[in-house]
Write a structure and sequence with these properties.
The protein has 231 residues and is an alpha+beta fold. The protein has 5 helices and 17 strands. Strand 15 and strand 16 form a beta hairpin. Helix 1 crosses helix 2.
């Protein structure tokens, strides 16, 4: 039987070390060896017989996929490390958690549900729009959201040459000069909600993700983490 081989970055992601993209950066930084030789390029395939070391430690076999739900507080970066030295979500996780990566991101000033996993391949698949997972947010904006704005969001809009898919938007309540919205997206482009609101002259003052696919924020409080079944 022919030995199955796969790209080194995928093997590292499957072992729960990091994402494929981060694995490629580690390789270029000289942190990965295969059969005693330091890799200089991610363009390498390995099989079960190859000896892979990352930071001089043997690469573990693929672990059982595990998933955690984390309430990301406002003010934390979703990154393994930040060049500016700002606090990251990984600095605030329980010390007994294994090495995990995030499924997608939330920006610095957003909060709410962030999925964490030990399986880089699972994370990559769950981020793809093709998996059909919706992302739902509670959004507080300064200003009045007109019926015209709601209608245009339901149809999808183009901003600076970027097409944003139709989204479901409900007005939850109005408070003085603020409006709370419930928004469900199918793609989750970078800062999508903030860009769409700015396009209509509305400023987002709070953004909370409350669901990602079948996972719900529920009663989690900022900073809390809870393991969940793998979907």
């Amino acid at each position: 039987m022919t030995e199955k081989k796969e790209r080194i970055a995928k093997k590292m992601a499957d072992a729960g070390l990091c994402s494929r993209r981060e694995a490629e950066r580690w390789i270029l930084a000289g942190r990965v060896q295969v059969n005693g030789q330091v890799l200089k390029t991610p363009a390498c395939v390995v099989g079960d017989e190859d000896v892979v070391l990352v930071d001089n430690k043997p690469l573990a076999s693929k672990s059982k996929t595990r998933v955690w739900m984390y309430y990301k507080p406002n003010g934390l970066i979703v990154s393994a490390r930040d060049p500016q030295g700002r606090a990251t979500v990984f600095d605030h996780l329980p010390k007994d958690m294994p090495r995990v990566i995030s499924v997608g991101r939330l920006d610095l000033n957003s909060e709410g549900l962030l999925l964490l996993t030990n399986d880089g391949e699972w994370a990559r698949k769950m981020e793809l729009p093709s998996n059909g997972w919706k992302r739902t947010y509670r959004v507080r904006v300064h200003g009045v959201v007109s019926a015209e704005v709601l209608g245009r969001l339901h149809k999808g809009i183009k901003i600076d040459g970027v097409q944003y898919a139709p989204c479901v938007v409900e007005v939850e309540k109005k408070q003085s000069t603020n409006t709370w919205l419930k928004m469900t997206l199918s793609e989750g482009k970078n800062r999508e909600i903030r860009k769409m609101m700015k396009f209509f002259g509305l400023e987002v003052s709070r953004l909370i993700r409350i669901s990602y696919g079948p996972y719900q924020l529920g009663s989690l409080k900022p900073g809390q983490v809870q393991e969940a079944p793998c979907a």
